[in-house]
Amino acid sequence: QPQVVESGGGWVQAGGSLRLSCTASGLNFGDLNMAWFRQAPGEEREGVSCIGWSGDYRTYADSVKGRFTISRDNAKNTLYLQMNSLKPEDTAMYYCAAGGFCGTVLREYSWNYWGQGTQVSVSS
Description:
Blueprint: E1 3-7, E2 10-13, E3 18-25, E4 34-39, E5 46-51, E6 58-60, E7 68-73, E8 78-83, E9 92-98, E10 113-114, E11 118-123
Parallel strand pairs: 2-11
Antiparallel strand pairs: 1-3, 3-8, 4-5, 4-9, 5-6, 7-8, 9-10, 9-11
């Protein structure tokens, strides 16, 4: 049974940092593009960042460029999102997604496997 599970969310003050993790099982993780999406209350889900299967290709939403870094460890079947200089507008549920198209614009419908999400809350 394919599964992706996020962890690492929490509460942080503006300017702080968090690192999210996503562990996959039942998938050929090393063959799959991976991505992070987020959804704030009352908003649509938006793509944050994606990384190609080898780790060589990465894209970021303009709103997080220079602050967030996506990475992966294929030996551990784990995806990461290092989030620095967090802002209140980064507050959202963050979702890990696997097996989709990794491009400059992330389309929710192109991703096959989703986690349940981890909440990130940033206070001002």
